[in-house]
Amino acid sequence: xxxxxxxxxxxxxxxxxxxxxxxxxxxxxxxxxxxxxxxxxxxxxxxxxxxxxxxxxxxxxxxxxxxxxxxxxxxxxxxxxxxxxxxxxxxxxxxxxxxxxxxxxxxxxxxxxxxxxxxxxxxxxxxxxxxxxxxxxxxxxxxxxxxxxxxxxxxxxxxxxxxxxxxxxxxxxxxxxxxxxxxxxxxxxxxxxxxxxxxxxxxxxxxxxxxxxxxxxxxxxxxxxxxxxxxxxxxxxxxxxxxxxxxxxxxxxxxxxxxxxxxxxxxxxxxxxxxxxx
Length: 278
Prior knowledge:
This protein has helices at 6-20, 33-46, 63-75, 91-94, 100-118, 139-145, 151-154, 159-168, 194-209, 233-238, 240-248; strands at 25-28, 51-56, 79-83, 123-125, 215-219, 223-228, 254-257. The chain is α/β, with parallel strands linked by helices. The protein is globular. The N and C termini lie far apart (40 Å).
């Protein structure tokens, strides 16, 4: 276990105080590093009986991320509850407005209230970190409405600090690239369907199989746009014919390669957001 810097040890001490002041936690768990650390520390500081992970096996979550989340909880002896949110049945969500994430989180946090009835003394937690507060995240409004707590944001832990604390505890996904929900690959106001989400997931799995770890395939209706890290663009172009052929085979009429490379949140450029916290 790598020793933490004094700064990070101070952050971890603050987190321990934060957790130990509370009875228990119900963590909205996605398998990403943010909620993974929130859940792990709940288990660490509050004990097994007081730390409950809850994951929604919805169409917008990659199957491999769902499996990794289950494996993590088994490895670290963490209680996991599996639910099924039905956001795709909500027209407000699948019409894909600019605040789509609000409706997604509204469904999730609403359904988590059923879990809270089983553990009424426990707080519901999210993986929101300090950096998220400066980004365009409509889901934060839903979190506020349902009084969801965020220990990482409360203790002012940034994404990079969060990763370093996770590395300290040897968590297997401490350096896992961000894996936003599959719906985030579809431009705003383009309808979200199960078919589109499956096509995106299959296409990104193809890229992973070819050795590209951090990828996005944006779904523009009649074509898919492939993003990989800029340092891997040369490799991608060397495999261009194979990539296009295989991705077309999962349902895309055409495939294009984004020469800019992967930029997280690229579709948000279409928004006119004066204040990203709104």
